[in-house]
Predict the 3D structure of the following.
Amino acid sequence: MRFGTAEAAPGELVTGVIEIGHDNILPLVSPVMLARGALPGPRLYIQCLIHGGENVGPIAAARFLRSLDLKTFKGSIAALMVANPLGQRAHSRLTPQDGTNLNRIFPGSATGSVGEQLVHRLLALAGEHGGDAVLDLHSGGELTITAFYVIYDNKFDGPAQRASKALSAQIGSRYQWGASEDWMDGTFLTHVTRTHGKTALIIESGGGARVREEDLANFSTALQGAARALGMIEGEPPIATDIRRGGNAVHVKCTKGGFWDCKVEPGQDMVGGHIMGQMVDLYGNVVETIRCPAAQGWVGSIRRPWMPLYAGDQVVEVVERL
Ligand SMILES: [Zn+2]
């Protein structure tokens, strides 16, 4: 079994690289890990760092793969560790060379800009190696802090969407968000689901320019849960209680620049009018109070507290509660 230069015999965990694009010097490569159980079984594909700086995912994925007992493991896991090497080098969620957000421009193009070519290749790799399920690991990166939530494609009602929803309930997250918004049309997730017909989830936790053990633990729960749900390892997947479902998200922005004094936590329940934070100027004056615009919602993500922001920057992602 091969993934890039990594070649695994039954019972082996191997590392290597794979070519995913070209820059002006050499081919762009991503590190890869391939874990192959001693026993045959399902194939799981994990993608990390399509947004540079979202470092919780690859750290958690490497830990998880190294923790597996491959003598009893059924099937294989292929992990693409850096889907956006240009952004990762710059600590940026974007691709600096062409300004693209890779997770908004799928399916990309083999003849497009460097970012468009990257996503074209990423989609092909997921189709080839995606097997039975695909997990796209995110966090808030440098600028944002997210709740431990899971997203599946909810725009259409098909077998891949239903399987994705079922898997989303087995990774231990209580924030289970079936998204149908238009921005989802350009994501890796929806193209894996709609083009390749595969079970696929986005999983997020943490960010804010740091990696906490709590977020690594969330990803460990999620990855183990997915492996259990797929029958790769023994045990029941974790079932979260007190579930929060999500509808559309409202990306709340400040209208005044200043320091962002955030008053809410990722995952927190809110009702309309709840004060989410305030903008404070350099003299210490409160220049704007920011309230929850949804009648009922939960905090999907917050901009990093006390970050200096421009007018018009996003401060809170409010997910409408269903
Ligand atoms: Zn991301």
